[in-house]
């Protein structure tokens, strides 16, 4: 695609010259290739420009003034529309060209696309979440009943564990008591056995003393 810029090289209007320089200078800064077509020195260019500018874009006298901009045969606009596009960072769209990657216009287009897609996705996700929450919603009575049952089960478990703990404590006390009784019995039996042995020893000593006394009496 070729961008055509219709100019008047020998125009006596300072305003027209300034507008032409503004358009050409900006296109060169953007490195957009264009073809300048002089209407002052070429009657064919002048006639073609006048015939292809849309009637609604022509001034009241029917004679459009340069600069006029075209993309091949398609009309882009005059200086005023070009200036507005430049202010809005939409010159490539104005010229009917794709903005190069990294340009302000390309970044702006990407942000707009992301915003539109993100809003659409967000709305869709919100609707899906609402449907999901409705399908998964549990009646209050059912939630309360479930919580009550869980509380009763927990109380039962605690009671069983408490009873088991008490039983183990009682068992330990009984075992300790039985052990103490057995030890006491054993100590009593040992004491009785020792007492019996002591008595036997005393009886033997007495018998020995009596025997010695009898022996002395016989000797006398």
From TrEMBL:
Residues 112-151, 211-220 have a biased composition (Basic and acidic residues). CDD domains: GRX_SH3BGR. GO terms for cellular component: cytoplasm. SUPFAM superfamilies: Thioredoxin-like. Residues 152-164, 175-190, 198-210 have a biased composition (Acidic residues). Pfam families: SH3BGR (PF04908). It comes from the Eukaryota. Residues 103-220 are annotated as: Disordered. InterPro entries: Glut_rich_SH3-bd, SH3BGR, Thioredoxin-like_sf. Belongs to the SH3BGR family. This is SH3 domain binding glutamate-rich protein. It comes from Gadus morhua.
């Amino acid at each position: 695609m070729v961008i055509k810029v219709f100019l008047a090289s020998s125009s006596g209007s300072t305003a027209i010259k300034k507008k032409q320089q503004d358009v050409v200078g900006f296109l060169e800064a953007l490195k957009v290739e264009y073809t300048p077509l002089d209407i002052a020195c070429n009657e064919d260019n002048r006639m073609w420009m006048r015939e292809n500018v849309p009637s609604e874009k022509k001034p009241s006298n029917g004679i459009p003034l340069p600069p006029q901009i075209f993309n091949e045969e398609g009309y882009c606009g005059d200086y005023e529309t070009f200036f507005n596009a430049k202010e809005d960072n939409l010159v490539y769209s104005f010229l009917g060209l794709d903005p190069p990657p990294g340009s302000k216009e390309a970044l702006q287009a990407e942000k707009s696309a992301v915003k539109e897609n993100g809003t659409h996705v967000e709305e869709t996700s919100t609707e899906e979440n609402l449907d999901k929450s409705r399908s998964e919603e549990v009646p209050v009575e059912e939630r309360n009943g479930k919580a009550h049952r869980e509380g009763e089960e927990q109380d039962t478990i605690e009671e069983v564990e408490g009873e088991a703990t008490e039983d183990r404590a009682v068992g330990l006390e009984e075992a300790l008591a039985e052990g103490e009784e057995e030890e006491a019995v054993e100590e009593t039996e040992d004491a009785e056995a020792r007492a019996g042995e002591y008595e036997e020893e005393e009886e033997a000593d007495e018998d020995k003393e009596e025997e010695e006394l009898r022996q002395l009496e016989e000797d006398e």
